[in-house]
What we know:
The protein is mostly helical.
Amino acid sequence: MGEERSPGAGSKRRRLLFAVLLLLLGVAAWWGPTLREAAAVSTIRGAIADHDWPKAESLLRAGLPVGPEPISPRARAAAAERQFLLGRVFRRQRRFDEAEGCFEAAAALGWSAEEIDRQRMLARAQLGDVRVVEERIGALLAEGGDDAFAEDCYESLAEGFIGSFRMDDARECLDFWSRWQPGNPLPSFWMGVIEERYERPVMALERYAKALAMNPRDDEARIRVARLELDTAKLDEARRHFRECLDRRPDDPRAVIGLADCLLRAGELSAARDLYLDALTTDVTKEQAAAALTELGQMALEEGDVGRGAGLLEQAVSVDPRGTRARLTLAGALLRLGDEEGAKRERDTAQRLAERQRRLATITHEALGKPDDPDLRAEAGTILLDEGFEREGLRWLETALSIAPTHAPTHRVLADHAAALGDAERAAYHRGLAGDARRPGAAVGGAGGATP
């Protein structure tokens, strides 16, 4: 006879297996979302390490909670990390306002205040306040630790040094970084930026091309390579690079306009016109929109449609009043239409703008050799403010004060700017620091207290 079994043995084994299955299902239900989120974040961090900002942004946005409904502590922690990483991605792209919004959201969700503070510190360096934070960044680098954060530090320092015209410091930083990470494309990219600042396009192109060879997904490097190739009449190469950018980012206005410029120079007028029109439907800056409208206006003039050309050029001037080429071309169109007074007005304005732009270029070149001269920075900031570049002008003025906190010409410009905005308290503060508190017409109150 075979081995005897207890009548309930099979039933007990089935109950045991069922219990184990329930336990495994419970574990999966509890840990599954956590494991999925960990895998997703790992992919996101990989995209960041590869400098693939569009991919990283898309993945981060896809996992953020939608709506005001309450979320679990686990989901809250995941959202905090995603907001922090999204802020970091925006900061690396100089989208500082968006980055700050993400950091505020991450802080509200409980993310580390120390990590957020570090990212804000790096943003200050990028914006030109590198003098204020470089010692602290250097101390953090000396501590060692996370390679990704170290890369952030080196890039922010390099960008800050370049923006402050401290080119020797920038080169030293980039040289050390490239020796530490010889396969990282960013040191080559930023060396390309330095070469462009010194107006050495051939050397800049070599640097950007090297960075692009290391990371073919880097659209910023590819755009710069393409633009320099276009400027040096390498039309076929430029066209290929612009098209590759458009394959990945069809709505990138820089690539759309760049390819249109290539087609225009090659004589493919109809295709170029279509692309300029397409560019106006994308998220263009004022300068990009004005550039497209100017080309469309010029093409209309060359085809004999003076009225349409003048209309397009007037739109270009309206969108970006600082465009000298649009104004000069419009002056010619108005003259053909018999409007001599309007033509003279546009020519005179274009001449004034061109003179200011030449002076600004001269100041920028002089600042390369005199990075600690606050007079140059104050003059550049004044020109930019006068031409409507408020953010850029204020940054130049702020860096002048970081060099010389009591620089009277800078405080006078800031006082006039504040007064024009109706901020009497801040105007009085700057007049006081300039020694003009009692100047006729100055705001009453002086600078007796803290900075407003």
